[in-house]
Write a structure and sequence with these properties.
Layout lengths: L1 E2 L4 H18 L2 H8 L2 E13 L2 E14 L4 E7 L5 E7 L2 E2 L2 E4 L2 E10 L4 E11 L10 E5 L6 E5 L23 E9 L3 E4 L2 E8 L3 E8 L10 E4 L2 E8 L6 E8 L6 H22 L10 E5 L4 E3 L5 E3 L4 H9 L8 E2 L6 H18 L4 H12 L17 H4 L2 H19 L2 H14 L4 E2 L1 H12 L4 H7 L6 E10 L2 E10 L9 E9 L4 E8 L4 E6 L4 E6 L8 E8 L5 E2 L1 E3 L6 E5 L10 E6 L5 E7 L5 E3 L6 E9 L2 E9 L1
Parallel strand pairs: 2-12, 18-19, 19-21, 22-23, 24-30, 31-38
Antiparallel strand pairs: 1-20, 2-3, 3-9, 4-8, 5-6, 5-9, 7-8, 10-11, 11-16, 12-15, 13-16, 14-15, 17-18, 20-21, 24-25, 25-28, 26-27, 26-29, 32-33, 33-36, 34-35, 34-37, 37-38
Bound molecules: zinc ion.
């Protein structure tokens, strides 16, 4: 899901009055794990709806198997705004109560563990949205002259109960889904899976029957009703060679259609790109991928049929990416939403980089800027925020930071091949099931053969981000770097970070080095064959961090320095040109002719003594510093 940030203001206002709805969700764990244990196999939804009002009338049938203990009470969720007409369990009407968005029915007979349960709930009423981040509603989509009125649903994370009786438990995926939507002509209904039939009904109405046989989480079930135009065709997956159905439902005018058509067609290229990048075929290829244009101020990845506002490239790419991360493998609970949103957001960046490379750097810069807005937040959703949709879907901390974390993880794995192989292994292992952050980490550890606990504890579960301090001082061919890493949050600290630094030379060349910075200051010195003119820290923007960088070129001329004896056998003395009896600090560095540092010394000796018996014979460069003055000289080892 993506929601435009402009809506947050409205959401904040609504939050106070809506929060009671989510208090009801807190009971789900207790009820589904203890009071009423069943495993949903199939949802069968039959709903009459039209874009002319929010009135709906219908039924939900659930086929489930009883788990854990004998079932005597059947609990399921439905918004109180809807009136329940009857609850029928295994063909027997039963007594029930409906309050706090929960239906609690007494089963006519006990149902033993392993036995089938079929429950049908009939209901009607004016639907009310309980979703603070946009929800079920009626709105106008398309442009203002040709826009059409649409009835649509939006369930993530806890609002499926606004239109059908459902078990809002993300790990209990239904194996199959049937949706029958009855609506007056000329409206049509669009939903998950395949359109199996359109039946004429009395009073100028039609029933659209959609069906899916892929496992589906409750919040990915949705439908939309409107006077849609359709744009459908099949395309070839270059990876599998099979054709995939592609369906689009919209209300665009003929004038605006050519532009939208191009954007829609681009989706096919992105599907092929994702298949080759991730190494996993589009997971719902036997049914379809599709879009329906609805006024939801962003997009929602309803399985096989994304609901979206427009066809902005990154929005299309993001929602499509959920087919793999979110729908194929679904987060194990809402604390683990990164499995959905972190990956979908990062994949949309990778698609941008592939198809519009000129726009990718700006996107990445903006992503980092937003990801580091909150210096105290973790990517992981804290346990006390799991019923707070605004935190779960925090644009800064879940989407931007979640995506940039993957970018940094890619850098730390030091191999794109390994990085994307882990994605593939993870997806294949948890195909059509649920998984959390730790499951992904386990695949990463299996592939790389080392622990990633510290990295995840610091960068993912830990609060904030690292602040990398680095100051550079160039003196002709000599460069000194001094730096450290601080954490933006006092609750966090970071293991040493290899920080890439690009060094540019006067001769036009450059080189990329990595210096390891920790939470204590370290100094690094280098000698190059050409004078240093500039440094760029993290030039490829690989680190989820803030930077405090300074760089100065010291133009005071180098003085030459003498050593005795020169050439030397084992030891020599360094003789600074100005006689100075005070015990100021003197620094010495010795480089081989390849520019590698072979020795360094900090001393207060007036005539520093250096012993290098093991050094191999040859010519070396001695660089020295005393107070603000720099010195250089050649030394020869016999
Ligand atoms: Zn999303």
């Amino acid at each position: 899901m993506i929601h435009h940030r402009g809506t947050w203001v409205l959401i904040t206002v609504l939050w106070g009055i809506q929060s009671f709805v989510f208090a009801q969700q807190e009971k789900a764990s207790e009820y589904y794990n203890d009071s009423s244990c069943y495993d949903v196999k199939c949802y069968d939804l039959r709903i009459s709806a039209s874009p002319d009002s929010l009135y709906i009338k219908g039924s939900t049938s659930i086929v489930a198997t009883v788990e854990k203990k004998t079932l005597t009470r059947f609990y399921i969720q439905l918004n109180d705004a809807l009136t329940v007409d009857s609850v029928i369990i295994n063909e027997h009407p039963c007594t029930f109560e409906h309050s706090g968005n929960w239906i609690k029915a007494i089963t006519p007979q006990k149902i033993e563990v392993g036995k089938m349960l079929q429950a049908t709930i009939h209901y009607h009423g004016n639907a009310v949205s309980s979703n603070v981040i946009g929800g079920l509603g009626i709105g106008t989509t398309g442009n203002s002259e040709n826009g059409c009125k649409v009835f649509y649903t939006l369930s993530e994370p806890y609002a499926a109960l606004d239109f059908f009786a459902c078990k809002q438990w993300v790990t209990d995926k239904a194996d199959s889904l049937k949706i029958y939507i009855t609506t007056p002509k000329p409206y049509m209904a669009v939903a998950n899976g395949l359109l199996r039939s359109v039946d004429e009904k009395p009073n100028n109405r039609r029933t659209f029957y959609w069906e899916s046989h892929y496992p589906i989480a409750y919040y990915l079930i949705g439908f939309a009703v409107g006077e849609f135009k359709s744009y459908n065709y099949r395309f070839l997956s270059t990876k599998s060679g099979d054709s995939i159905r592609f369906e689009n439902y919209h209300c665009f005018s003929d004038a605006e259609w050519p532009e939208y058509k191009n954007s829609i067609d681009k989706t096919v290229e992105i599907i092929n790109y994702y298949e080759s990048l991730i190494g996993v075929l589009y997971p719902f290829g036997r049914e379809k991928y599709g879009h329906v244009v609805v006024p939801i101020g962003g997009g929602m990845e309803n399985q096989t049929i994304t609901f979206l506002q427009n066809f902005d490239f990154t929005l299309v790419a993001h929602e499509l990416a959920h087919s793999w991360f979110g729908n194929y493998v679904t987060c194990s609970d809402w604390q683990n939403i990164w499995i959905n949103e972190g990956f979908a957001t990062y994949l949309s960046y990778l698609a941008l980089e592939k198809f519009y490379p000129a726009e990718a750097p700006d996107w990445l810069n903006s992503c980092l800027e937003l990801a580091t807005r909150d210096s105290l937040a973790s990517i992981y959703i804290p346990a006390d925020k799991v019923f707070d949709p605004l935190r779960i879907f925090s644009y800064y901390n879940t989407y931007m930071k979640g995506a940039y974390f993957l970018h940094t993880l890619r850098y730390f794995t030091e191999s794109d091949e390994i990085f994307f192989q882990v994605w593939q292994n993870f997806l294949q292992k948890y195909a059509y099931k649920n998984a959390g952050v730790e499951d992904f980490k386990r695949e990463l550890e299996a592939k790389t053969g080392r622990s990633w606990s510290a990295f995840f504890n610091e960068w993912f579960y830990g609060k904030g981000y690292p602040v990398i301090h680095l100051s550079g001082n160039a003196k002709n061919n000599f460069l000194q770097l001094q730096g450290m890493v601080k954490a933006s949050s006092s609750d966090n600290r970071y293991s040493p970070i290899p920080v890439p630094v690009r060094i540019q030379w006067q001769n036009g060349g450059d080189t990329l080095i990595r210096i390891v910075l920790s939470d204590t200051t370290s100094r690094h010195s280098f000698f190059f064959s050409s004078p240093v003119t500039a440094i760029t820290v993290d030039p490829q923007h690989q680190l989820l961090a803030k930077f405090k960088i300074s760089f100065a070129i010291d133009t005071t001329p180098l003085q030459s320095i003498r050593t005795f004896p020169n050439p030397f056998n084992d030891c020599f003395q360094v003789i600074f040109p100005t006689t100075d009896t005070s015990a100021v600090e003197r620094k010495l560095w010795i480089y081989n002719m390849a520019g590698q540092q072979v020795y360094s010394l900090q001393t207060h000796q007036r005539l520093p003594q250096v012993c290098l018996a093991k050094l191999i014979s040859g010519t070396y460069l001695l660089v020295a510093q005393k107070q603000e003055q720099w010195y250089v000289g050649r030394i020869m080892k016999r």
